[in-house]
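From: lab user (bench 3)
To: helpdesk
Subject: output format question, protein + phosphoric acid mono(formamide)ester

Hello, I'm new to running complex predictions and I'm not sure whether the block I got back is the full result or only part of it. Here's what I submitted:
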Amino acid sequence: MNKNSIVSISDLSKKEIMRLLDSAASFEANPNRKILDGKVVATLFFEPSTRTRLSFETAVNRLGGRVIGFSNPAATSTSKGETLKDTIKMVSNYADLIVMRHYLEGAARYASEITDIPVINAGDGAHQHPSQTMLDLYSILKTQGRLDDIVVTMVGDLKYGRTVHSLLMALSDFRVRFNFVACDELRMPEEFLKICREKNIPYRCSKDFSPEIINESDILYMTRVQRERFSDLMEYESVKDLYTLNNSMLSGSKPNLRILHPLPRVNEIDQDVDDNPKAYYFQQAKNGLYARQAMICSALGIDAD
Ligand code: CP
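Helpdesk reply: Thanks, we reran it on our side. This is the complete output you should expect:
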């Protein structure tokens, strides 16, 4: 196992997170540097992706490295029955770093344990999405000027949403207050509420996406109800449209409020929000490029400065 692998956000200390955020700011100021010359990064996507894969690949390209990989596992020898273990061992022969998304929780940890090259988890089932967390933290820091003393409201699929799980874990090392807005079927799992309690992070769970909650928030983190995580599609149909943010709901919100969403969205943010200056989700996705440049260099042990 390579010590530079980033499988869970908990693999990073608060100090390391702050160092990566500094590095992301430096990459935003200058994203084109030939510091990955001669390096090959493999992007292995066993699940669909637009932002994560393309921003990781852009990050490598802008730093002068090369990318190999796949986004359609059906076109690889996986479809002939090759195991994940053998796939990782083969790719390790060719690349200096693996960026992997997989539908199975724990797949990235498993991959990191059977190779000597670093692995960055680009999302494993409903478990973790640490590079999304780094760009979320970077977006919060950029828009609020701090990560302490903020009210963060997470809305929607808090049960299966790996982005909210990773973000909660990271923010629990700061002075934040959480609102968790979800229906019973999709509420924040107890293991994450326990983390809040153990770290004295105040939180409130609510089924009601009320004006009071919106108006006290600094960050409104909307999430998609993920059809692909449900085994019972009837259950998905019954909960998929429960929480939709529209522009009129923001009339009493704080001036510094920013609306984040890991994207893709379906209908949880009405398009009439897009032109509101508080809508930040497209810039948030752009910040992913800089956060991932910082993570790639860190995983490869390259000092960007
Ligand atoms: N936020 C995110 O992971 O987006 P993609 O699924 O498009 O990569």
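A quick orientation on your result: The longest helix spans residues 281-299. Let us know if anything else is unclear.
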